[in-house]
Amino acid sequence: MSNPNDEKKYWLDDPKNHDKIFYGVLVISLLVAIPDVLSLLNIVYHKHVEFEFENIFEFYSLYGLVCYVGLVLIAKKLRVVLKRDEDYYD
């Protein structure tokens, strides 16, 4: 018979590893954000825009935000259409 103290310990069971994951994600996020910060200062590259409205400050991030929110709202409406009854498979 197995003893409850003999349970296998996983690496996420240790709270110190939670902090390691948090700080790892934080560092990766900061490294990914460096080119964006430099592009705000026009140090890394100059955008050759096709249309004039693309010169709006942070146009691409605002466009991405609007599209993401739109997808979430559309998915909420689509869920009502595609949802099955609770006892559908009975």
* Gyration radius, rounded: 24 Å
What is the N-to-C succession of helices and strands? HH
Helix-strand makeup class? mainly alpha
Tell me what portion of residues adopts beta-strand conformation: under 5%
How many structural units, i.e. domains? 2
**Which range best describes the helical content: under 10%, 10-25%, 25-40%, 40-55%, 55-70% or over 70%?**
55-70%
Number of alpha- plus pi-helical segments: 2
Largest sheet: none
Separation of the first and last Cα atoms: 39 Å
Uncertain regions: pLDDT < 50 for 5+ in a row?
Answer: none
Q: Main traits of this protein?
A:
56% helix; 2 domains; 90 residues
Describe it.
The longest helix has 26 residues, at 15-40. The chain folds into two domains: 13-46; 47-84. The chain has 90 residues and is mainly α. The protein has helices spanning 15-40, 59-82. The two termini are 39 Å apart.
Helix/strand layout:
Layout (H helix, E strand, L loop, with lengths): L14 H26 L18 H24 L8
Q: In brief, what are we looking at here?
A:
The protein has 90 residues and is an all-alpha fold. It has helices at residues 15-40, 59-82.
